[in-house]
Design goal:
By secondary structure, this protein is an alpha+beta fold. The chain is built from seven helices and seven strands; from the N terminus they run αβββαβααβαββαα. 41% of the residues are buried. Helices cover 41% and strands 14% of the residues. The protein has a seven-stranded mixed sheet, with helices on both faces. Helix 3 packs across helix 6. It has a single domain, classed as 3-Layer(aba) Sandwich (L-fuculose-1-phosphate Aldolase). It binds zinc ion. Zinc ion (ZN) binds next to loops.
């Protein structure tokens, strides 16, 4: 049984940030309608904040953001948390280095995710910002435990994963970084598609990959 916490706008600044990132995601075309979702870990608490289900991004207010525990249970009365809460929780449980997640439904990421093709390391940022080739988690029903399991497994120790026929899960040390990863994934997918029209993309040479890997590791420690 959940002990309901009286709503008092706890974590107001973080709630505002979730709302702002949602508006940016919508305005930059990284999602449409009410698709996708955004969450962040609350520092020093075993809880997260996550966007509500089925509310347009431009209408979401800080009070609509849900406080959810690590069992996925809301701790306040209010709206329903996003249906994809299980994969957000799963990532936070497995990856202590991640405190922000942006789940986008952007067009070019969707296009690549529909083909289930792995994106090789053919641009510097695929390693320096994502942590290596971008893989596609297999298709599962939205909100299912199977989807959560496969997203977490396919993400591994990287910052982004595509979800087959669905979208992208983009992670960062905080929400600002997670949003930047979402923008970067969309750019990478766009270039991948354009390059693939001209021919097969070529991966970076080994020394280039090693160099970008070093930058990725440095950024993680920073
Ligand atoms: Zn989705």
């Amino acid at each position: 049984m959940i002990g309901w916490v009286k709503f008092n706008m706890k974590f107001e600044e973080l709630r505002k940030q979730v709302v702002e990132i949602g508006i940016k995601m919508f305005n930059q075309g990284l999602t449409h309608s009410t698709s996708g979702n955004i969450s962040c870990r609350i520092p020093n608490e075993n809880k997260i904040l996550i966007t509500p289900s089925s509310v347009p991004y431009l209408d979401i207010k800080p009070k609509d953001i849900l406080l959810v525990n690590m069992d996925g249970e809301p701790e306040e009365k209010g709206r329903n948390p996003s249906v994809e809460t299980p994969f957000h929780i799963g990532i936070y449980k497995k990856r202590n280095d991640i405190s922000g997640i942006v789940h986008s439904h952007s067009v070019y990421a969707l296009a690549v995710a529909a083909t289930k093709k792995t994106i090789p390391v053919f641009l510097d940022e695929i390693f320096s910002e994502i942590g290596g080739e971008i893989q596609v988690a297999k298709y599962n029903l939205p909100g299912s435990d199977e989807l959560a399991e496969d997203v977490i497994k396919t993400l591994g120790d990287k910052n982004a994963v595509l979800l087959a026929n669905h979208g992208a899960a983009c992670c960062g040390k905080n929400l600002v970084e997670a949003f930047h990863v979402a923008e970067t994934v969309e750019k990478i997918c766009r270039v991948f598609i354009l390059s693939s029209i001209l021919g097969e993309v070529e991966s970076l040479p080994e020394d280039g990959i090693e160099y970008q890997q070093m930058i990725y590791e440095m950024k993680k420690d920073f």
